[in-house]
Amino acid sequence: MLKSFQARLIMFVLVLLALVQLGTALAVLSSLKEDNYKQGVHSIDVSRNVFDLFLEARAEQLTKGVEILTSDFGFKQAVATRETGTIRSVLQNHGARINADISVLVSPQGELITATQELNISNTVAELVFAARRSGGSSISTMIAFDGRAYQLVLVPIKAPNVVAWVGMAFLLDQALAEQIKNVTGLDVSFVYEVDDAHTLSGGSTLPLEEKETLFKEIGSIKSILKSPVFSNDEKYLSLGVDLGVSNQWGIIHLPYGPWLQSYNNTRNQLVLIFTGALALALLFGVALARNMTQPISRLVDYAKQIGQGGNKEKISAPDMVGEFGVLSHTMKTMQDSIINREDEMTYRASHDQLTGLFNQSAVEQYLSDELPKEQGGLVLVNIRHFKDINNMLGFDVGSSLLSKVAERLQKWGHDANMLARLSGDKFLLIFGRPITQQDCSNLKCLFSEEFEVEAGSGIRLDISIAVLPFEHATNSVNSAMRRLDIVADEARESSELCVFYEVGQDENHRRQLTIIRDLPAALEGGQLFVVYQPKIGLAGDDCHEAEALIRWIHPELGFLPPDEFISLLEHAGSIQQLTKWVLNTVLSQLSKWWVQGHEVRVAVNLSAHDLLDEQLPFIVSEALQANRLPTRALALEVTESAVMKDRVKVINVLKALQEMGIHLAIDDFGTGQSSLAYLRELPVNEVKIDRAFIQFIDTNKGDEFITKATIELSHSLGFQVTAEGAENAEGTALLRQYHCDKIQGYFFSKPLVAEEFFKWREAFHRR
C-alpha cells in the first residue's frame, strides 16, 4: 500500500486535520473576544446610566440644600433690604456646609447681585433665570463652564411671596466627585476639557497619574469616543465619553479591561495546549508514515538540487526508480539535458550579436567593468557613415550581409584585439591592450577602401569614421568611458580627419552643452535671458525707426553664453521654438509700451529653421500681435538662407502666409548660405541683409566693395530693400551711402542696447 503514491496522501489528511483544528481555535477565540467586548460595552453603558443618575441625584440633593437657605426668614429679610455684606456671609457659610464651590445671588431679572467669587457668567445666569420664568419652574439644575472647568449649578428662587431673588450654588466637577462616582460604579471616571486646538485633554481623573497622562494623549479629540467606547493602545482600558451639555467639557468613563483580557488569555492558552497536543499526536503518526514515503522523494530532491546548482556542465545520473517516481526521474533527466542546452544558448545570446557572431554591448560593459581602471591600450569605435541610406536603397537583407562582411574583415585586421564587438546597427568596437596609433587608423581606413561585394559582379565601398579612447582617459566607470567614447564618435562623424582621439576637456564641454540645454526653462523663468536692441539707421532720412532684437544669456554658473553657442545647441536639442516664443513675446511686450507712447519702432526677430518648418507659426505670430495690440507693421522677421533650404516648399508657404499678414520679412546673412541670388527671386521677402563678412572691411577690400555694390543693385532691381550689417567706420558707411544702401546696422552707430538705453540713444540720435 505504501508503495502507491495515492496512499501517501494520508499526510495531506493529517495536515488538513491540523488546519481544521487551527480554524476552530481561531473561531472560538474570535467569538470569545467579541463576546468579551460586548460584555465590556454593556458594562460601560450601565455605568454611564449610573453616572447620569448620580449627577441627577446629586442635583436633587444640592437643590434641597439650597432650598433650606431660601426658606430662612432672616436671609429673606437680608435679601429684601439688599444687605450685601450679610448676604455674602450667609452664602459663604451655607455654601461651606453643603460643599459648594461658588455661591451667587441673582435678581429676578437675572442680574448678578453678589457672589463669593469674581464671576463672568452674568449672561448665562440671566438666560437660565428667564428660561425658568417662562417655564414656571421653581428651581434650576444645569451644567455651566467657568474658567475652563465644568460646574453643576443649582438655582432656587427666594419668594416673599413673589420671587425677589435667586440663590445659586455651583459645585465643581472635580476629582473628588469622580471618586464618589467610581465608588458607586466601580469604574474610573475623568472630567476633562481641551486646553488648546491640538485636542490636548486636561482635568481631574481617578486614574493613576501615569496612566491618566498616557490615556489622555491617546484619546486626543474627545468627540471620537462620545458614541461608542474605544480601546487604549495597550487595550488596558475601554473608554466612553459623556457629553455634559457644556461646550468643551466632557466626562469619560474608563472600564479596566485587564480582567476581560485575562479571561480571554486563559481560554486562549487552554486552546493552544489542546491544539499543540493534537498536533503532536498527528506529527508522530505522520513521521512514521513519511519515513517510507520520503525516501524516493529525497533522492529526486537531491537530483533536482544538483541540476539546479548548474555549476558542473557534466550530466548527472538520474536515480533508478519505478512507478510514478520513475516517470518523474526520467522527465527530470530530459529536463536536465534541455537546461544544459538552453543555458549554453542563453549564455551565448547574452554576450554575442546574433547577426555577426561578435560580442555585444553587454559583453563589452562586463569586460570593461573587470578591466577598468587601466593605463595601456584603448577603445576603437568604427562607425559606418550613411549606413541607413544603404539600408533604404538596397534593402535590409543587403545591409545585414554587409554587416557580416564588415565583421569578417575586422576580425582579420584586429586579430590581436582583446575583444571585437558590434554595439549597434553600424557601430563596431575593438578593444586593444596595446597603444593605438595613427598608423592603426590609417590601416583601418585602407581595410575599408576595398569594395564589399553585394551581388555577383556588384560591389560597394563603405566610408567609416574612427573614434579612439585611450584607456588612460577612460576613468573607473564603464558608463563614463562609454559616454566619452560616444562624444569622440559624434565628433568623428562630423570630422573629415582620418580618426579622432579623445582629448582632455571634451567631456567637460559635453557637460557644458548638456547644462545649457537643461537650464533653458529655468533661465527663461529666472530672468537670466534678456533682449538687446541694435539700431538700424535709415540712410534716406538719416533716422532710426527700426532695430534688431538680439538675445543675451548670463548663466549663474557658466557666465556669459555667446548666442552662437547656445542657439545652435538648442536647435539640435529641439528647444529653439521655446526660445523663439519667449523672444517674440518679450519684444512685442516692449514694442507695445513704445507704440502706446507714440514711438512707432519696428523690431526684427530672428527665426530658426525649426520655426519656419512649423506651419502654425503665422497663427502664433498673429495671436502674439493681437495680445499686445500691435499692428503687423510693428514686427519684422529675419530668416537665414540655410533655414530656407531645409524644406524650401514648406518654408516658402510659411513665409507667404506671414507676408500676406503684412509682416516685413528679411533674408539674414545674405551671401553666406546655399541659395545666393539664384533663389532670391522665389522668396516672398521684403528685404535683403548683406552679411557683415562683406561689410566689415569694405573700405579696404575691393572684392568686398564690388560684391556689396552688385548685391545692392541686384536687390534693388528685384524690388528688395537692402540692409548692411557690420558697419564699423565712417569710410565704410560713406561707401554704403554712395551705393544707395537703404539701412545700415553696426557698431559705427551703436552696439546692441537694452530697451531703456536704446530708447535714450534713439532720442539723442534724432535730436543731434
UniProtKB/TrEMBL annotation:
<protein>
    <submittedName>
        <fullName>Diguanylate cyclase/phosphodiesterase</fullName>
    </submittedName>
</protein>
<dbReference type="Pfam" id="PF00672">
    <property type="entry name" value="HAMP"/>
</dbReference>
<dbReference type="Pfam" id="PF00990">
    <property type="entry name" value="GGDEF"/>
</dbReference>
<dbReference type="InterPro" id="IPR043128">
    <property type="entry name" value="Rev_trsase/Diguanyl_cyclase"/>
</dbReference>
<keyword id="KW-0472">Membrane</keyword>
<feature type="domain" description="EAL">
    <location>
        <begin position="513"/>
        <end position="766"/>
    </location>
</feature>
<keyword id="KW-1133">Transmembrane helix</keyword>
<dbReference type="InterPro" id="IPR001633">
    <property type="entry name" value="EAL_dom"/>
</dbReference>
<feature type="domain" description="HAMP">
    <location>
        <begin position="291"/>
        <end position="344"/>
    </location>
</feature>
<dbReference type="GO" id="GO:0007165">
    <property type="term" value="P:signal transduction"/>
</dbReference>
<dbReference type="InterPro" id="IPR035919">
    <property type="entry name" value="EAL_sf"/>
</dbReference>
<dbReference type="GO" id="GO:0071111">
    <property type="term" value="F:cyclic-guanylate-specific phosphodiesterase activity"/>
</dbReference>
<dbReference type="InterPro" id="IPR029150">
    <property type="entry name" value="dCache_3"/>
</dbReference>
<dbReference type="Pfam" id="PF14827">
    <property type="entry name" value="dCache_3"/>
</dbReference>
<dbReference type="GO" id="GO:0016020">
    <property type="term" value="C:membrane"/>
</dbReference>
<feature type="domain" description="GGDEF">
    <location>
        <begin position="375"/>
        <end position="503"/>
    </location>
</feature>
<feature type="transmembrane region" description="Helical">
    <location>
        <begin position="271"/>
        <end position="290"/>
    </location>
</feature>
<dbReference type="InterPro" id="IPR000160">
    <property type="entry name" value="GGDEF_dom"/>
</dbReference>
<dbReference type="InterPro" id="IPR050706">
    <property type="entry name" value="Cyclic-di-GMP_PDE-like"/>
</dbReference>
<dbReference type="Pfam" id="PF00563">
    <property type="entry name" value="EAL"/>
</dbReference>
<dbReference type="InterPro" id="IPR003660">
    <property type="entry name" value="HAMP_dom"/>
</dbReference>
<keyword id="KW-0812">Transmembrane</keyword>
<dbReference type="InterPro" id="IPR029787">
    <property type="entry name" value="Nucleotide_cyclase"/>
</dbReference>
